[in-house]
Amino acid sequence: MELPAPCQREIGNTQFGNNTTIHQDNNTYNLHLPLRPARPFIHIIPYPRNEDLVSRPDLVEKLNVLLPQTSRAYCSAALWGLGGSGKTQIALNYAYNRRDKGTCSVFWVHADSEATFSQDYKTIAQAFGVDQQLKGEDLLAAVRDQIAAQPDWVLVLDNADDLQIFGVDQAPEQTKSLYQYIPRASVGTVLWTSRDAHIAGTLVGSRRGIKVARMKSDEAEELLTIARDLEANEEELETAALLEELQWLPLAITQAGAYMRRTLTSAKEYSSLLAESKRRWEILKVNEFDRHRRPNVPNNVLETWGISIDRLRQESETAYNILHVLAYVTNQNIPHEIITTILKLSDIQPEQLDAEATKAITRLKEFSFLGMQRTEDGGRSYEMHKLVQEAARYGLSLWQPSVFDKVPSEKEGQGYFSGIAVQVILDLFPDSEPKTWAQCEKYLAHAVQMGDWAGLNERQAEINLLFRRVSRFFLDRGRWREKELVDKRGLEFDRKTWGGKHPNTITSMSHLAATYYEQGRYNEAEALEVQVLDLQREIFGDKHPKTVRSIANLASTYREQGRYEEAEALEVQVLGLRRELFGDKHSETISTMASLASTYARQGRYREAEEIEVGVIDLRQEILGKVHPDTITSLANLASTHYEQGRYKEAEEIEVGVLDLRRQILGKEHPDTIKSLANLASAYYEQGRYKEAEALDTQVLDLQREILGKEHPDTLGVMHNLAWTWKEQGRLSDALILMEECVQCQRSTLGPEHPYTVKSAKFLEMWKSEDHSLESNEIHKQSGQVDGESSE
């Protein structure tokens, strides 16, 4: 009998660029964990109830028809309309009404971006008591399933303005979307809010979208009265004229009312201020360039903002500065520490921080620029309307001292404030290591947001360092799709900033190559690695550690492409150079030994591989200790070699120990932990324990297809193995179908000459012949013939 595909080997860590580490054959295999018992009536709503909400009965009635509160079936709907039209407040009121039923769980998720979506799912996971080890797609899937398991639930997805992240109108190369993590069940309610009318007919049915337009006159008048916190005492015509100027838009009315309340301004006086603000904005909007960069912000929002911001600056320069720095972070889940860090950079003394922060936050809230948010840990967090941020940034982009009668200052304009935002987030986003991962996650959305402002300021070094930290965090968590996006932005930024041959640019190329490698995109990884190696040789010479590291990376890619002789030649070269540069016991020397052993094993040179691996284990135990991740990886490699030698029981014993250690140290969902599960399945197979092998391989395969894609090399390896298991169980037809799919994907992904493709194709042809023999045999039986002999 032919053996199934070998265990997926793991080798020592390979360094990319400036200490960027990749783990060979180390991809994200996610686990389907059993659901915990559902906790009834969980309520996660980040905003307090709006006690001053103005009723909009026509919209509420439409919403209740589409999402009846007594429904015992799954249903969804969307509120869509211009920013500032009141969509979120309507959704918030619906959420609280459902909560008040007492038998319904309610969950609120900010759907602005993948980062805010993931952050809120993490908060929900904590409320459910989901395993805290889960990260990335595992966590999203676990939360989805926990919500769906509730007896009655509502999920509000607020500000889903970028529909592409939910799979709408995605580019052909995009294969992932967050839509797969929206719960579906026999019972449940999903309510979306979005500026994009396209949400109706895509994410919800064409008849399940509700347009939220301007308020009716009486509704707008009531809102202005509430916002002013005064009884209306002007002539009705004055109030009506002002509301018409504000276009009956709730956000503009609230902003104007807050100003009028704070300054005791009448409707007539505010109309005059509005006319002046409009004049000034028109002066700033005269050139053609501005028409192309102007955000989708209603004129009245810009104009009311102009009035309030001028007053805010008169009262508090500190609050003014904080507002404009916050315009460049994510608008939701703004931790209090961001504000205090802004003040630290403004040379506020430590003993004055809390008092100054309190005063500034109070003023920002009084002008309706800032709102409070609830947090599960009891900390202070804030939110700012997206339109306020857009208007603030737009104002800074057009800032002209001659128009606003200001003296020119270096502390003005978008370059200054976006630069402060970058420095603040860099101060708060730490270097990635297990003890800082929670801190990284807390500020991740804000750190990713900084990429949008990379070209606005002179903080090139800080932006470069922040890109590095975010990329490293995604690498440590195995979140390759998010890492790829950050790496591409980082590389583009470095090329524009430093040029194509700068060390920062070369490092960014290495980071992106590492990401391609981890995604199984070996040809793309090779192309970048060759460029990096040529540049390193040109700049540093043949024996510089960075050049040697680049050679080692290229060797790893050759091995995964099945180019074993080329990989071996490079690894022997690297081992000699590293022994010369660092000595025998340096981590990079030991890593090269592990890589060479892996290549020997791929060539069937198991005794040579085993000898090196035993030496690597001894060295790593001596230098790093017995429970260091690299030591554990060395044990896993030895187990794989025992497997290849037919020593299955020994392989199993080592792999069980490795699996236990990885669960303890790395967590259940870490890619290395999942690697151990896949290897254990192979050991079970070879011992004839097909049911156990099938259970593990099926679990891994389902998640690989979902997360890595059906053509990822690691997905194909498990497909191959599972096909063999089915064949051994007598399921030849199922095995043929799976192996045929495997071969087709291997030919397109790895190429027809790759050793894995050749092996799988060979087995496929053998099985087809066997299947034809069985079919022929069955025909013979039915016609009275057996084994070609006549019954006559």
Strands, helices and their partners?
Blueprint: E1 14-16, E2 20-22, E3 43-44, H1 57-66, E4 74-80, H2 87-99, E5 105-110, H3 114-128, H4 136-148, E6 153-158, E7 188-194, E8 209-211, H5 217-228, H6 236-245, H7 250-263, H8 267-284, H9 288-293, H10 299-315, H11 317-326, E9 334-335, H12 336-345, H13 353-366, E10 371-373, E11 381-383, H14 386-397, H15 401-404, H16 413-428, H17 437-449, H18 460-477, H19 480-498, H20 503-518, H21 522-540, H22 545-560, H23 564-582, H24 587-602, H25 606-623, H26 629-644, H27 648-665, H28 671-686, H29 690-707, H30 713-728, H31 732-749, H32 755-782
Parallel strand pairs: 3-5, 4-7, 4-8, 5-6, 6-7
Antiparallel strand pairs: 1-2, 9-11, 10-11
Give a short account of the largest sheet. Answer: 6 strands, parallel
Strand content: 5-15%
Name the overall outline: globular
Q: Helical element count? A: 32
Structural class: mainly alpha
| Cα gyration radius (Å) | 31 Å
Quaternary structure state of the chains depicted: single chain
Give the strand order, joined by hyphens, for the main sheet.
3-5-6-7-4-8
